Amino acid sequence: MGFFEERFGAHGFLGEHLWLGHLGFFLLVLSFSAAFMSFISYWFAEFKKTEADKASWQRLARISFSLHGAAILGVFVLLFIMILNHWFEYHYAWHHSSRELPLKYIISSFWEGQEGSFLLWQFWLVILGWVGMRTLRNWESPVMGMTALTQVFLGSMVLGINILGHHIGSNPFVLLRNELVQAPIFQRPEYLNMIADGNGLNPLLQNYWMTIHPPVLFCGFASTLFPFAFIIAALIRNDYTGWVKPALPWTLFCVAVLGTGILMGGAWAYESLSFGGFWAWDPVENMSFVPWLFIVAGLHLHLVYRYTKHGIFSTFLFYILGFVMVLYSTFLTRSGILGDTSVHAFTDLGMTGQLVIYLFAFLIPSLFLLFFRFKKLPSPPKEEELLSREFWMFIGALILVFSAVQQIFTTSIPVWNILTFDWLHLDKLNLHIGTHVFFKDKLAEPADRIGHYNSIQIWLAILAGLGTGLIQYFAYTSGRLPSTIRWAWYSFGIAFVLSIAIAYGMHVDFIISTSIKSFQFKFISPYYLMLFSALYAIVANTAYLFTVVKGNAKLIGGTVSHFGFGVFLLGVLLSQYKKEAISLNTAGVNFGKDFSSKDLAENILLLRDSTYKMGDYEVTYKGFKPEKPNSLYEVHYVKRAADGSISEEFSLFPNAQINPKMGMLANPDTKHYLTKDIFTHVSSVPDNTKLKDKTTQYEVGIRDTFYTKKHYVVFRGINTKPVVPGGYDMKGKVAVSAILDIRSMTGDSFTAEPIYVINLTDNSVSTAEYQNEQQAMNINIGKINPESKKFTFVVTEKELASDFVIMKAIIFPYIKLVWLGGIITFLGVFLSMYRRYTENKVKPE
User: Fold this and answer.
1) What is the mean pLDDT of the chain?
2) Quick check: 534 pLDDT over 50?
3) Is 664 in contact with 658 (CB distance < 8 Å)?
């Protein structure tokens, strides 16, 4: 027990559930050890010569991985028990949950912390690994070996042990008193009775999307391992044919699930964050998107290789980078490097070194193996034909990679700066060419992040849209255009006509002007080109579905995905380019330095019960109601017909809170229509958490006047027979009241009569103060001085809560196309996955 006592402390603290910590740590060690044993066993199963030895080691590997999976499930259960029961003796439960949270947010608090998210990642690899043991057949040993090795590294992240002075991982079962050792409260055995509640869940994460988005996203992250594992297996075996078919369903599953998780993240951002949209090019958003781009690029070249034997090197490279980018994103978000550039990033838990080791442990060997085998990779003697499908699919893959490269470079600016200035000190080299000095200054983040990305990504989106409509009409290998290509040209014409009509109807610019050194240049607007590109993807894929696929259920997956992608692009363009802020600050109110010039122009101030004209609506702020930890602010919209009658009315309830650690946190509310959304959020609300009452004493005589903060008061006289409040025992007592005439600064007049009661038996004194809730004012008689004939009045004026909002309202036209397009896209991927799975089941390779 000595080791456990060192970790969890000796007994003597009351109410602790130490058994859970002991068992949890045991299961973490067991899962780590079993994963390592599974990896070793699969390694031997792969390289043993005889079938009997292979089968024996594979059996041990399966048992070990199953034991590992059972231990991970056990850790999951224990962590939920800890959080659900509010056992705040454990730091993780105290730090991430509270008693006030509803069940859905208590569930979310499981993966709010780094330890929980690593366990969620491990959980999905366990589930996928169990599926793999049943379906991978002769590829089980190398693929599951990589799965077990990944679990070893992930398991080390939650061990929380010290080896030779180095701390390995962060244990979710550490005790609160062992984390906050210096706090005096932990010197008392009954300290748990003094912990009323936990720290609670990050308010930004208190949304139902955060209950379902992280599990789906981490399932996607976990699935990126399998395309990577298949190509490592192919390289180890020097087998460049057998991996192709069995890897396809896993890759398609990865594309569908990771893409769905990213789409859910966009929905969460749209419904819960107040930046006004579903994508802000936040570093963490980028680094979930980048692996998906690499995997999709690899998938398309995977298909090319299957049918033509072209592109195997690029396929392998993109699958490696897809998985490695998940590890790199893990490093970025959990090392603390992005703490100043992203609202999503974790703080550093001291695992930066481990994360770097994890990253390079997979990156360097895999790239070495790829280049070591480079000469043995199959390469057809004949190059791709210019008019072949494989050539243009390769170009399409490069477009996706270019998109990823821009995001990686800009997102990694904090890393470049740390690497070149803080670690390598390259600024001291004085490296220069001509007058240009390299490493003189650190790279700066783009001032306009959204504009920086959009200026490049929009052109890549245009090319991607055109490619998804056109490429499938080409044939593999032949280099000759098939007869069905005519439908691609018909689609071009239809899309052109539609784009002209929609551009005119929705006022999308056809031409943009640019000034360069006083010269004016005119170009076709990229927004119009994106409109045309999206429509072409929709029309061309529709034509392909009915003229080539002809309803064949087995072949529709890719076409459905490409059709959905076109719908998605159309939704992105219309909802973002044509969004309209209707809360225009025509009064020119200055909201302060925290508002940019754009925000100053697009926010309005609404006092309670005041009405403001916004676009087609009259908007009235009706007040707020507390709903802990937030306050709901009712914004009432009214739309009138030409005759002045009300044609529509509704209320939206954006919420906000003044968080002592994070400042104001706001969640929008949205009115949904078929063709538009009205998105409303509060940009600023009064901080009523620090209201202070002012109490002042005034010594005055009859007919004297005194001034308070909000009133002036005349002491008119004395009443020797006041009406004493009911229930007051006046036996042996005498009462006197002061008559005060009061006028407020707003002109309200009223009379106050505080009462002073003297007990004639013992000369003790009691009072009945005057209270006026409407004026937020209390007046009491402190004492009466018979000699000076003066009264001392004690006046308390309560500081009234301010009641206003500074709010922004945006109309997003056709934003439902974004969600619809995403759903259709990933539905098509799932259809393709099912097709490939059934093919493999019938004819495994």
Assistant:
1) 88
2) yes
3) yes
Q: Which residue has the higher pLDDT, 239 or 553?
A: 239
Instruction: Kindly report the backbone phi and psi dihedral angles of residue 340, in degrees, each rounded to the nearest multiple of 5, phi listed first.
Output: -95, -5
Cα–Cα distance measured from residue 471 to residue 696, given in angstroms and rounded to the nearest whole number? 81
Please identify which residue in the block is written with the tokens 């009945």.
768
The separation between CA 78 and the C-alpha centre of its own chain, rounded to angstroms, equals 26
Confidence grade of residue 348 (pLDDT, cut at 50, 70, 90): low
Task: Quickly list H helices, 167-282.
Answer: 176-179, 209-223, 225-237, 244-272
Residue 174 pLDDT? 92
Residue 495 and residue 540 in contact, taking contact as beta carbons nearer than 8 Å: yes
The string of DSSP letters for 410-468 reads: HHTHHHHHIIIIIIS-GGGG--EETTEETTSSPPPPPSSHHHHHHHHHHHHHHHHHHHH
Contact yes or no for 426/439 (Cβ under 8 A): yes
Rg (the chain; Cα; Å): 34
pTM for this entry: 0.86
pLDDT at 428: 65
Beta bridge pairs of residue 580? 811
CA-wise closest residue to 153 among 330, 10, 308, 7: 330
> Residue 6 has what pLDDT?
47
Q: What b/e sequence results for 240-252 when a residue is b if at least 16 CB atoms lie within 10 Å of its CB, and e otherwise?
A: bebbbebbbbbbb
Statement: residue 205 has pLDDT above 80: no
Q: How far apart are CA 285 and CA 273, in angstroms?
A: 13
What per-residue confidence (pLDDT) applies to 481?
Answer: 80
Residues 744-755 have pLDDT tens digits of 877 789 999 999
Q: d(Cα 658, Cα 685) in Å, to the nearest integer?
A: 8
Q: How far is CA 803 from the centre of its chain?
A: 30
Side chain identity at residue 723, one-letter code = V
**Residue 432 has what pLDDT?**
61
For the stretch 413-422, pLDDT in tens is: 888 888 777 6
User: How far, in Å, CA of 838 to CA of 832, rounded?
Assistant: 10
More confident residue, 412 or 658: 412
Per-residue pLDDT, 829: 96
HSE-up (13 A, CA, CB side) for residue 333: 21
Helix, strand, or coil (residue 47): helix
* Residue type present at position 599: D
Assess whether pLDDT exceeds 90 at residue 188. Answer: no
Q: What is the DSSP letter of 305?
A: H
- Counting beta carbons within 10 angstroms of the beta carbon of residue 1, is it exposed (0 to 12), middle (13 to 18) or buried (19 or more)? exposed
Which of 186, 260, 257 has its CA nearest to residue 224? 257
- Which sign, positive or negative, has the C-alpha torsion 357, 359, 363, 366? positive
DSSP string, 48-99: -SSHHHHHHHHHHHHHHHHHHHHHHHHHHHHHHHHHHTT-TTBHHHHHH--T
> % helix / strand / coil in the chain, to the nearest 5?
50, 20, 30
Continuous segment of H or E residues that includes residue 773: none
Q: Report DSSP state, residue 670.
A: E
Q: Is the pLDDT of residue 305 over 70?
A: yes
Tell me the average pLDDT across 695-703: 92
The tokens for 423 are 């670690």
What Cα–Cα distance (Å) separates residue 394 from each residue in 299, 376, 391?
11, 21, 5
Q: Which pLDDT tens digit goes with each residue over 599-629?
A: 899 999 998 888 999 999 999 999 988 887 7
CB neighbour list of residue 533: distance below 8 Å, 6 or more residues apart: 461, 462, 463, 464, 465, 466, 469, 569
What are the strands of the beta sheet with 694-701, ordered from one edge? Answer: 694-701, 790-797, 777-785, 770-772
Place of tokens 């280049």: 371
